[in-house]
Amino acid sequence: MKYVDEFRDKDVASDLVRKIGSVVDGMNVSSPVRIMEICGGQTHSILMYGIEAVLSSSIEFIHGPGCPVCVTPIEKIDLALELARRPGVILASFGDMLRVPGSDENMFEAKATGADIRWVYSPLEAVEIAKSDPQKEVVFFAIGFETTTAPLAAALHVAERDSVKNFSLLTAMVRVPPALELLLSDPDCVIDGILAAGHVCTVMGSDEYAPIAEKHRVPIAVTGFQPVEILMGVLEVVEQISRGEATVRNTYAWVAKQEGNSSAKALIEKYFCVIDRNWRGIGMIPQSGFGIRDEYSRFDAEKKFRAQVQEPRQTNKYCGLVLQGKCRPSDCPFFGKQCTQTHPVGAPMVSSEGACAAYFTYQGVRST
Amino acid sequence: MCLAVPGKIVRVDGENAKVSFGGVVKDVSLVLCPEAREGDYCSVHVGMAQAIIDPVEAERVLEVLKELE
């Protein structure tokens, strides 16, 4: 496939690996350069293509919190399940959420016992369900980073334009920059460089990251998802470190423009406002989410159904440490024992792009 | 979750398009990319085009990569 195969080329990848190694060798550092990839999709590419293994002597990858399924709080999942159980409600969701455990059950289990839960590929499909079944209320479980927030805004645009009154969002959207700021402000932070998520920047542009790079003296490379693209981002970061620079550079510019997507940003701005958001395993991060503007509260499921989140009953502290890059999945005592892909305990194992799922899939469980 | 896949727009019909992903043709919304035209390659996330791929920039990057040793 064009724009995919070229960026999986083995020879180009080998050249980049050699180049990264020689730059790091020239830096005379005693330990590997520590690079955090923000996005869970990048975490999977790094493990699936063996990038972590082939660069292990020069680069240590620290896996970031960029998995929206993983950071959605359990109480929000409980609320989604509570709404799904109400008569006349159809809960629509991306498939990624269905196996994530709530306090008592997951969505598959709720569906099996009568709740009307549908999984869709696009939020627009949920709008179509609402149009075709006007007697029912369709609630879409709106998770995602900025990448997905844009299609959610587009879904509201279509619902408003077509006067769809039985459609609403249960919002759980999150923003990358405040979470990154929080991680880099931690006194224990050991991150030398950042791979910014290319598809978040496709929507939002990369300007939000410049103050972060400058304040924390950390190089940031806007990076794609194919192995060559990830290696290009890593090379950019280590070259900046070797030159003593700390700025934002875009190594994915044929997709992500510096200014982002103006149509998408305008729709986000129209329907959503920035709010504080609670992240599973991390806690409340100021200004880290999107909520629905008051003038569009008819699309806000929590207001429409007067539903409120309840305190969760169970959490596993290791999930939060993994999400913050403070603990590797294999350091968690539950990993591969009580918590497997067949019987996941924590969200980073459930989500197809969670760090625990990546380790479990590509490295297996190593005896200690 | 932030997965996006590049595909070629083979037909535009209002705010919708048929996009070919290596020969597999899917319906894609152009609400977020109203400037997209037939023949463009676009990056598609959850059924919506989010960016038109810049072929000149992609070619420039591939040329730079060829120069690596």
Number of strands of chain A: 11
* CATH secondary-structure class of the largest domain in chain A: Alpha Beta
What value does the average pLDDT of chain A take?
A: 94
CATH class of chain B: Mainly Beta
Number of strands of chain B: 5
Q: Can you tell me the overall shape of chain A?
A: globular
Number of domains of chain B: 1
Rg of chain B computed from alpha carbons, rounded to a whole number of angstroms: 13 Å
What is the CATH topology assignment of the largest domain in chain A? Rossmann fold
Number of helices of chain B: 1
Query: How would you describe the shape of chain B?
Result: elongated
From the N-terminal CA to the C-terminal CA of chain B, the straight-line distance is 34 Å
Q: In sequence order, what are the helices and strands of chain A, one letter per element?
A: HEHHEHHEHEHEHEHEHHEHEHEEHHHH
List the strand order in the largest sheet of chain A. Answer: 4-3-5-6-11-10
Q: Which structural class do the helices and strands of chain A define? A: alpha/beta
Chain pair with largest interface: A-B, 53 and 35 residues
**Number of discrete helical segments of chain A:** 17
How big a fraction of the residues of chain B is strand? 35-45%
